Amino acid sequence: MKTIHIKNVHEIQKNIPLLQKKLKVGLKIIDHQISITGKEENIYDAERVLDALNADFSIDNALLLIDPEYLFEVVNIKNFTRRSNLEDVRARLVGTKGKTKKLMERLSDCFIKLRGNTVYIIGPAEDMRDTMTAVERLIRGSAQGKVYG
Fold first, then answer.
1. Where in the sequence is the domain holding 90, given as residue range(s)?
2. pTM score
3. What is the pLDDT of residue 7?
4. Domain with 74 in it: what CATH number?
5. Which pLDDT does position 41 carry in this prediction?
6. Residue (of 78, 71, 81) closest to 118 by Cα position
7. Same domain? 36 vs 100
């Protein structure tokens, strides 16, 4: 059995039957804690999916993590820059009207979420390295056109 903290209890609660069926685990929510029971390999997948749901990915995107070819990566912006104004760094990652983020997602077949000073990425293993490199280069200040152009 594994217990993890969850933020979006309502979203997970309304999808418990689907999650239990797809993940092949038992899920029980008490307050903001969710207990996972089942086979160890299924618990591992469930943890990854629940972490993605905690990062506000859609249920469909989070369930992609059942496939071993999909990865879930977390990038802390503070680990790649010394800038004090992290709002500017976040703005660079998103771009005007979200264009930079959308273009990175389209070019890489990855899904990207930005929450606070953390970037979350779900994507196929073969695309993850390039996406991570692009995110890190944007954080460090590279011109957007040079990152994906």
1. 70-148
2. 0.90
3. 85
4. 3.30.1370.10
5. 92
6. 78
7. no
